[in-house]
Amino acid sequence: MNRILSLFETGKVKRILGAAIALILFASMLVFERQGGIKHLLLGFTLSAGCGLLINLKKFPLIPSLLVLAAYMIYAPYKLLIRMELPVNDLSSLQKESLWLGLVMVYLLYIICFLFTQRIGSAVACGNVILLLITVSEYYLVTLRGKAFSFYDLSVFTDYNRGEASILPSRELCYSVVWFAFFILLAAKLDISPQAIKEKFASYLERPVHIIASIAGVLLNASFFFVLLFTPFLENHGFNDLQRMETPLSSVHGLLLYPFVEYRSEQGEGAKGKTDWLDYRGICHALGITETGDVGTNSLEAFLYNYRRGHRVFEADIQITSDGVYVLRHDWDMDLGQGNAFGWTEEDKKIPTMQKFMEAPILEKYTPLTLADWFGLMKKYPDVWFVTDSKYSGTVSEDFKLFVDTAKECGCEDVLSRVIVQLYYPVMYEAVNSVYPFENYILTIYYMGYPEDTTDFYELLERDNLKGLTMPKAQSEKKLPEVNASSDFKLYLHTVDDATEASELFKYAYGLYTDSLTEKDLEKAASTR
Q1: How far apart are CA 391 and CA 399, in angstroms?
Q2: What's the half-sphere exposure (Cβ side, CA atoms, 13 Å) at 468?
Q3: What DSSP line would sit under 429-483, residue for residue?
Q4: pLDDT tens digit string along 435-461?
Q5: How many CB atoms sit inside 10 A of residue 103's CB?
Q6: Angle of helix 171-188 relative to helix 37-56, nearest 10 degrees?
Q7: φ, ψ of residue 442 in degrees (nearest 5)
Q8: What string of H, E and C letters represents the secondary structure of 370-439?
Q9: What ranges make up the beta strands (E) of 95-202?
Q10: SS3 breakdown of the chain: % helix, strand, coil, rounded to 5?
Q11: Higher model confidence: residue 346 or residue 77?
C-alpha cells in the first residue's frame, strides 16, 4: 500500500485540483451525454477519474516511460485523430487516405513540438493540446458557418451566420475533450528528458544526439509539407476531386488536411500551361454558382468557390451606386435580400450608397464587392480574367473613364491587361478605346440582335484585339453555321448549365458562359464534339 501511495504527489492543492477537474469533466458528460448510452457514460467517468489521478501521479521513471510511450504511440494518435473528426463529421464520408495521412501529420506535429521542448513527454502533451484547440475551433467554425478553417479564410471568426446554430457543445465534442484531457495528462507524466536518459545511460551523448534528431525532424517535416503544398500529391490521390466539392471539404478529407486541400485548390485546378483567356472553354457567369446553389450573386464567395473548381475567366455585372462608385451587381430591381437594408418599398427602390450596399450581405449570407475589391482580387490571383457586363449611367466614355480611374486609384492598373471588355454594338468600340487601349474585347449581340447589314459587324470582328463574339444560345440557332463558317474569332454562347447540351453546342461554339459547369466539365464536353 505504501508503495502505491509513493507513486502519488502529496500536495493538498494537487489533490483538490485533480478532484475538481475530474468532477468538471464528468459533469460535462452528464449534461451533454444523455443520448450516448451507458457505455459512453461509464467510459467517460473512467477517463474523468483517470485525469484526476494523473494530476496527482508522479512522473514515470525512464524505463516505464519508454514502455508507456511505445503503447501510447500505437494507440493514442489514431484515437485522437478519430476524436477530432467525430464532433463535426460522422466519418462515413472520409476517404481512407485522409485517415492515414492525418495520422502522419499527428506524428509530425509531435516531432515539431519536440524540436522546441527537447522532451518527448512534453512534446506529445503539447502536440495534443494543439490538436484539442484545433478540434474545438473547427467544431464551432463548421457548426456556425458550415466551413472549416483554411489558409485563405482568415476572417472565419467573424464571418458566420449568427443565430442559425447553437453555441452549446455536442456530446461528441464533450466526449472528445475528456479523451484529449486524459492523453495530454498521461503524456505529461512521461519522463524521457535528456537528463533522465543521461542518468540511466552514462555513455549517452546528449548534445550530438539531440542535434542530429532535431535536424532529422526539421528535414522530415519540411519534406512532408513541401509534398502537400507544392506537388500534385493531393490531386493525384483524389483530395481535390471536383465531384466532392458540394460537400464541405472537412467532411471529405479530414480537419487536419482541410487547409492544405484548400491551398492546393486555390493554386488552380485547370490553370497549368494556360496563359491566355482563350485557353479556357468557360466564362463563369456572374462569378458563378455559390457552394450552396445560388446563382447571379456576383459575390466574393461565388468567385472563391468557382476559382477552386477551375474557372479562370469570370464575367461580372457592374452597376453604379448613388454616390458614384462601381459595384458588382446585375441591376437595382432585384432585391437579393438587401432591400430592407436599402430602405426599399414596393413603390420606391432608390439606388443605395456604396456604404449601404457593402453593409448588406447578398441573400443575407454573401459578401458584396465593389469594382475596386474585384480589381484587388484580380491582383491577388494573377491568372484571373474579367469579362465586363457593364451598365451605363451616362455615356460609354464617361463610364469607362470611371472604370479605368477605379483601377488606377486602387493601385491595380496592371490588371486592365486581363480585362475583356464586352461590347454591345460596333460603335461602342471606338468610345471605349478612346478612353483606354484595352487589349481584349468580345462583342455580344443579345442587345442588338444579329444585324441584317453585317458590313460593320464583320469589319469590327476583324480587329486584332476583338477576340470573340457571344450570343444567347436560343438567338443563335439559325445563325450558328453562318457565323462559324465565316469567322476567325472565337464564338461563345450563353448561358449553359447542362453538360449534354454543352456537348451539342460545342459543335459550333468555341466556349460557353456557365453558372454551374466547371472548366473541366466544359473541356470534357468540347473534346466529345
Answers
A1: 9
A2: 26
A3: HHHHHHH---SEEEEE-TTT-S-SS-HHHHHHHTSTTEEEEEEETTTTTTTHHHH
A4: 999 999 998 887 776 766 666 777 777
A5: 17
A6: 30
A7: -140, 135
A8: EHHHHHHHHHHCCCCEEEEEECCCCCHHHHHHHHHHHHHHCCCHHHHHHEEEEECCCCHHHHHHHHCCCC
A9: none
A10: 55, 10, 35
A11: 77
Q: Please write the tens of the pLDDT for every residue from 99-136.
A: 899 999 999 999 999 999 888 999 999 999 999 999 99
User: In whole angstroms, how far apart are CA 232 and each of 134, 252, 269, 430?
Assistant: 26, 18, 10, 46
CA distance 98 to 257: 7
Task: Identify the DSSP state of 278.
Answer: G
Which residues are within 8 A (CB) of 11 and not within 5 positions of it... i.e. 6 or more apart? none
User: Please, which residues have CB within 8 angstroms of residue 241's CB and are 6 or more apart in sequence?
Assistant: none
Task: Count Cβ atoms within 10 A of the Cβ of residue 90 and give its class: 0-12 exposed, 13-18 middle, 19 or more buried.
Answer: exposed
Q: Which three cell numbers stand for residue 462?
A: 476583324
Contact 319, 390 (CB under 8 A): no
Q: Residue 120, Cα to own-chain centre: how many angstroms?
A: 34
| Dist. CA 83–CA 446, nearest whole Å | 56
Sign of CA dihedral 223, 225, 231, 232: positive
444: closest CA among 484, 483, 472, 419? 472
Q: How far apart are CA 219 and CA 118, in angstroms?
A: 16
As a residue count, the chain comes to: 529
Contacts of 521 (CB under 8 A, 6+ apart): 499, 502
Helix axes 428-435, 396-409, angle to 10 degrees: 30
Residue 307 contacts residue 266 (beta carbons within 8 Å): yes
The reported pLDDT for the residue numbered 266 is 60
Q: Is the pTM of this model over 0.90?
A: no
CA quadruple 59, 63, 64, 66: dihedral sign: positive
Q: Where are the alpha helices (DSSP H) in 322-380?
A: 339-342, 354-359, 371-380
Q: What distance in Å separates the CA atoms of residue 283 and residue 52, rounded to the nearest whole number?
A: 61
The grid coordinates of residue 41 equal: 457514460
Cα-trace Rg, the chain: 30
Q: Which residues contact 80 (CB under 8 A, 6 or more apart)?
A: 106, 128, 131, 179, 180, 183
CA 287/CA 396 separation, integer angstroms? 23
Q: Could you tell me where the DSSP H helices lie in 189-273? A: 194-200, 206-230, 233-236, 250-253, 258-266
**pLDDT at residue 399 above 80?**
yes
